[in-house]
TrEMBL record:
Residues 553-687 form the SET domain. One of its GO terms (molecular function) is methyltransferase activity. One of its GO terms (cellular component) is nucleus. Residues 695-711 form the Post-SET domain. It comes from Salvia divinorum (Maria pastora). Residues 102-114 have a biased composition (Polar residues). This is Histone-lysine N-methyltransferase, H3 lysine-9 specific suvh1.
Length: 711
DNA sequence: GTCTAATCAAAGGA
DNA sequence: CTCCTTTGATTAGA
């Protein structure tokens, strides 16, 4: 098969006219960067096939070409024909497909990094807006005040332009509780230094891969969470929201820690269909969808002499009256505009910008990425964005809305052969609310109510009826404390521990900063986390009791293809979320116990050697835990005993200390390394085997980084 | 080059 | 839970 340019290559034998296929090709701002020949420009190549997207899905080893290893046969035919007819029907007045060479305009870096690099942290533009609207001017002043309140990050240029503008109204002071100012820049720099990302290389900026996107998102999350934490701790201004999501992404954008920074149609390397995101800016950082707010992303393409906009991606998140019908492969998308954001005033939509781009893409027949915004039920006002793969636009029309105003509508149909994404969410929703049964269900809740959430036992793979018998216990039980010493007294936080409360002993024990965000997400990893204990007066829902509160996600134990039973979640899991602790029996490390432990497949041993987890903040020192703890979950255990090993884990463990009456107990808590989409198996690294044990357990994790065996 | 308008955001409070 | 206010970033296009 010829080198695929783009997702069109996934239908090699489909009877589509070639001109249309070529038509979708290398767009003007697609500038391939080749790891092996960095200086080469594709523009001068006679045969410009090089734009090969890394397969977006699956753990394909390096060097695999197929874009998608599936499909070709079913369903694609009728889709194509319909598409074709739709196009010809609408073709009047639109330029015909352009020959390939017209795309090779030698203006590659037009919107490249150079202009961006000069962008200041905070534009001075907002200050000059402050003329028209009195109601608005105050807010603008406030924002300026805020920006300069951070001091160090404001560039000289900004200071100059700000001071040149006259401030109107009463300047509002930013009150800072601790007297400590948050230095956003240095927070970010520290984290970037830690991850050795001060210089993010151009190759990774231009084209992502799984590792790069994961790194960018991780660092984004770290900076965002750290800012959240610092602002929570120091900020008592009303109205609280200081948008750490935007600030941290802005920092990364200006520092060039981003990937797929040039627009392109089709899949984006390093992002799989089904991947989930929790902020719009995350889409931006990985190059999936550039605008920070707008729902339609487009780029312009040179057509002979003029330029045409072409849609590359859309976000459908219910802002307009999109049709979310039963068929998850179809999306009726509303055009943009027609509503004044400030005052809600409405008018006709116009065929310009994104709307025009969608119209052009209809005739062009190019792939359009679709990101579905879904309400996050676990996190009230929040939203989760699911990359639902590529669609093609099949129809467009204009209709009148309730107010009789013009609205454009676009009918998009999902390209066949892509992994389940949005449809999977719909299925899960049905399993949950009972409108559809979970296929292969053996037991609805194998914990028999021991957890607050039921844990289904499922086998849709083979005939096995369940794992060997064990007793479900929700937590690790100590017969005697890990350490009898009680070095601290409990807190008196009746309303739960609060960040910034320096008198709270829990804050103090955790180096002055609570380990969890208000949403219960782990902020930074540490050698040990000190949670509230028995003598603390904080309520059970205190944010410093996250690992004691039990499993919050809807998990299921399922039969894997070749690795026995495994664990996965119906719910999406945000990076840093607590998943479960390792429950079981403490194994005393005597010679005989150790022998028994060796044929126990349900051992957790903190004393093993663990590779430093590059993905996790501050874990670079955790080669070996500074304490002995061996847990067996063979006869007593919880969901954790089903978590398999992987050399590319999505879960890591973290020691947690909880004090009880008799002393201090150490627990092992599992947290998500990155965002985990529903139904993706939860796996962690079991540790590196000693020489003696090497080769005993063959690893089947399938990761590119697989070391072949595990402990 | 600069600048601004347009945009299916996110959080918190009422 | 919905609505409203506040604080906002990115990019296309002027």
């Amino acid at each position: 098969m010829e080198q695929g340019f783009n997702s069109d290559s996934n239908a090699p034998s489909a009877p589509i006219d070639k001109s249309r296929v070529y038509d979708v090709k290398p767009l003007r701002s697609l500038v391939p960067v080749f790891p092996n020949t960095p200086g080469m420009s594709s523009i001068s190549t006679p045969n410009p096939t090089p734009f090969v997207c890394v397969p977006p899905s699956g753990p394909f080893p390096a060097g695999v070409q197929p874009f998608y290893p599936f499909m070709v046969s079913n369903g694609s035919q009728p889709t194509m024909t319909r598409n074709h007819s739709a196009n010809t029907g609408f073709n009047s007045g639109i330029p015909d497909p352009v020959p390939l060479n017209s795309f090779r305009t030698p203006t590659p870096q037009a919107n490249g990094g150079s202009s961006r690099a000069k962008r200041a942290y905070k534009t001075s533009g907002s200050a000059s807006v402050v003329i028209e609207d009195d109601g608005y001017s105050d807010a603008q002043d406030q924002s300026d005040q805020y920006a300069s309140g951070f001091g160090t990050h404001v560039t000289d240029a900004d200071d100059a332009s700000n001071s040149g503008k006259k401030r109107r109204g009463r300047p509002k002071r930013r009150v800072v509780g601790n007297g400590a100012e948050i230095d956003v820049e240095s927070v970010a720099n520290n984290i970037l230094t830690l991850f050795k990302l001060k210089e993010f290389d151009e190759i990774r900026k231009a084209n992502g891969d799984k590792d790069t996107t994961a790194t960018v998102l991780l660092v984004y999350d770290l900076i965002r969470r750290t800012l959240t934490q610092l602002e929570e701790a120091s900020d008592n201004t009303p109205g609280g929201a200081r948008r750490p999501d935007l600030k941290s992404s802005n920092l990364l954008m200006t520092k060039g820690v981003r990937t797929n920074n040039l627009k392109r149609t089709g899949h984006v390397p390093g992002v799989d269909v089904g991947d989930i995101f929790f902020f719009r800016m995350e889409l931006c950082l990985v190059g999936l969808h550039a605008p920070s707010m707008a729902g339609i992303d487009y780029m312009s393409v040179k057509v002979t002499v003029s330029e045409d906009p072409v849609a590359v991606s859309i976000v459908s998140s219910g802002g307009y009256d999109d049709d979310d019908g039963d068929d998850t492969n179809v999306l009726i998308y509303s055009g943009q505009g027609g509503v004044q954001r400030r005052d809600g005033q409405m008018f006709d939509q116009k065929l310009e910008r994104g709307n025009l781009a969608l119209e052009k893409s209809l005739h062009r027949g190019n792939d359009v990425r679709v990101i579905r915004g879904i309400k996050d039920t676990s996190n009230a006002p929040g939203k989760i964005y699911v990359y639902d793969g590529v669609y093609k636009i099949h129809e467009s029309w204009a209709e009148k809305n309730k107010s009789g105003l013009n609205v454009f509508k676009y009918k998009l149909i999902r390209q066949p052969g892509q992994p389940e994404a949005y449809s999977l969410w719909k299925s899960i929703q049905q399993w949950r609310d009972g409108t559809a049964g979970r296929p292969g269900l053996i037991i609805p809740d194998l914990t028999s109510g021991a957890e607050t959430q039921p844990v289904a036992l499922v086998n849709d793979t083979d005939g096995e009826k369940g794992p060997a018998h064990f007793t479900y216990v929700a937590s690790l039980k100590y017969s005697q404390p890990f350490s009898a010493s009680k070095p601290f007294s409990g807190c008196r936080c009746l309303g739960g521990c609060q960040p910034g409360d320096s008198s709270c002993p829990c804050n103090q024990r955790n180096d002055g900063l609570l380990p969890y965000s208000s949403a219960g997400v782990l902020l930074t990893t540490k050698p040990v986390i000190h949670e509230c204990g028995q003598s603390c007066q904080s309520p059970p829902n205190c944010r410093n009791r996250i690992s004691q509160a039990g499993v919050k996600f809807r998990l299921e134990v399922f039969k894997t293809k070749n690795r026995g039973w495994g664990l996965r979640s119906w719910d999406p899991i945000r990076a840093g979320s607590f998943i479960c602790e390792y429950a079981g029996d403490i194994v005393k490390v005597t010679a005989s116990d150790f022998e028994n432990a060796n044929d126990d497949n349900y051992i957790f041993d903190a004393g093993r050697y663990y590779e430093p987890l590059e993905r996790v903040y501050d874990s670079n020192s955790s080669k070996k835990a500074p304490f002995p703890l061996v847990i067996s979950a063979k006869s007593n255990g919880n969901v954790s005993r089903f978590m398999n090993h992987s050399c590319s884990p999505n879960v890591f463990w973290q020691p947690v200390l909880r004090e009880s009456n008799s002393g201090v107990c150490l627990h092992i808590a599992f947290f998500a390394i990155h965002h985990i989409p529903p139904m993706q198996e939860l796996v962690y690294n079991y540790g590196i085997p000693t020489e003696a044990d090497r080769g005993k357990k063959k690893c089947l994790c399938g990761s590119v980084k697989c070391r072949g065996h595990f402990y």
